[in-house]
Automatic annotation (TrEMBL), chain A:
Species in which this protein is naturally found: Hyphobacterium lacteum
Sites bearing 4-aspartylphosphate, chain numbering: 52
Pfam families: Response_reg
Domain Response regulatory: 3-119
Name of the protein in question: Response regulator
Coiled-coil parts of chain: none
Automatic annotation (TrEMBL), chain B:
Catalytic activity: L-glutamyl-[protein] + S-adenosyl-L-methionine = [protein]-L-glutamate 5-O-methyl ester + S-adenosyl-L-homocysteine
One Pfam family of this chain: CheR
Protein name per the record: protein-glutamate O-methyltransferase
Species of the source: Hyphobacterium lacteum
PROSITE patterns: CHER
Length: 128, 279
């Protein structure tokens, strides 16, 4: 089973994201800021990370920069998930090492579509 | 609640005008689609709207009702395999045949709000260096004038641009405008849209080298499907290509088309159209 780490300081967002990502067949872990997420990754690298931007202690940009320097830290597919939807913010995140970008608010369809685009799950067979 | 009589007359009109099949048990869908029309036309309910149409079958209003019943749900790079196959296998062949003499013409038939046509345009724009000097035109048509109006704007909501579109393509091909994302002129230049009914395509559409008609036939009655496949064949260049959606086939089209190996959903028009059609 593939694993996904959900990193967000909002318990509600973590809960919503967990439900959606579990339904895609992933084992889900949670972290409430970048520092906690780094600890989890250093214990066991997940296959995917859904990452908020603004968090206390360590934000998403600093987390992904640090992660990418770590041994094996280039492996996880990192999907940013944030309300900062302007082009400079998107570009900054991509430069920091983010693979994909979800603009909040999101729904299950968007998460599924993004997971497909980065190859975490296969193309679904939709009817019609 | 719409009664059986109302549903029957709506189904008959949808079949006659657009070949749309309304599956039994989808009354709720009809009611949902008719609600905004009833409201904007000043009727108390969907029932009142249909009663009015029964007494005065105003063409404009029937058209609006029927257009609303076509399935418009679509997204960018939906079922991308045939799009990739087009870019890697079909387009190079067409480019060689055409050798800069005539434009390569692509039809997105039943394009809804335009995402398929724009996806093709983005692919062309991304490969424009190797397409230099080749004239390519994409035409998108749909029966629903509201869908065509939206397609033409090239403006999509944050939800729409996150379905099927990578963040790299979003920032490469779109610019933000208020709470929407609008396609750049570099993509817009490849496509034009017009309203059209696949049961009787306009003469002036001309001939196409490839027609993408995906997830359209599946919503049609068997008769309309057969008729549409025949109509599309008359708009295809000799040996032109037809691309259908998942689960859709050329069944009912006689030998107007043949399957191509190695490309699911891609068909070629058979060469001797005249004799085959007469048969």
């Amino acid at each position: 089973m593939k694993s996904c780490l959900v990193v967000d300081d909002s318990r509600v967002i973590r809960k919503v994201a967990r439900r959606i990502i579990e339904s895609l067949g992933f084992h889900v872990d949670e972290a409430s800021d970048g520092a906690e997420a780094l600890e989890t990754c250093r214990a066991a690298m997940p296959d995917a990370i859904l990452l908020d931007r603004n968090m206390p202690v360590m934000n998403g940009i600093d987390f992904v920069k640090t992660l990418r320097q770590d041994p094996g830290g280039d492996k996880p597919v990192v999907i940013f998930c944030t309300t900062e939807n302007d082009i400079p913010s998107i570009t900054e995140a991509l430069r920091a090492g983010v693979d994909e970008y979800i603009m909040k608010p999101f729904d299950a369809e968007i998460v599924q579509s993004k997971f497909q685009q980065v190859g975490l799950i296969g193309e679904e067979r939709r009817a019609g | 609640m719409l009664d059986n009589g109302a549903i029957k007359s709506i189904s008959a009109e949808a079949r006659r005008r657009a070949g749309i099949a309304i599956p039994k048990g989808q009354t709720y869908l009809v009611e949902a689609r008719l609600a905004p029309i009833a409201r904007s036309e000043g009727y108390e309910s969907q029932e009142d709207l249909i009663n009015a149409l029964a007494q005065v079958p105003e063409d404009r209003l029937w058209r609006r009702v029927v257009e609303s019943l076509a399935d418009h749900e679509t997204w960018f790079f939906r079922d991308p395999a045939p799009l990739d196959h087009f870019m890697s296998d079909i387009l190079p062949v067409l480019a060689r045949i055409k050798a800069r003499k005539a434009p390569i013409r692509i039809w997105s038939a039943g394009c809804g709000t335009g995402q398929e046509a724009w996806s093709l345009a983005m692919l062309l724009e991304e490969h424009k260096d190797r397409l230099a000097g080749i004239d390519i035109e994409i035409v998108g048509t749909d029966i629903c004038s509201r869908a065509i109006d939206r397609a033409q704007t090239g403006a999509y909501s944050q939800f729409e641009v996150q379905r099927g579109l990578s963040i790299h393509r979003l920032i490469e091909h779109f610019k933000p405008s208020g709470n929407q994302w609008v396609l750049k002129d570099s993509v817009k230049r490849w496509v034009r849209f017009e309203r059209g009914n696949l049961l009787k395509p306009q003469e002036n559409l001309g001939e196409f080298d490839i027609i993408f008609c995906r997830n359209v036939l599946s919503g049609m009655t068997p008769d309309a499907r057969k008729h549409t496949l025949a109509q599309l064949a008359t708009r295809l260049a000799p040996a032109g290509y037809l691309v259908l959606g998942p689960g859709e086939t050329i069944a009912g089209a006689g030998d107007l088309y043949r399957s191509l190996t190695g490309a699911r959903g891609v068909y070629a028009r058979t060469m001797d159209r005249q004799s085959k059609q007469a048969a």
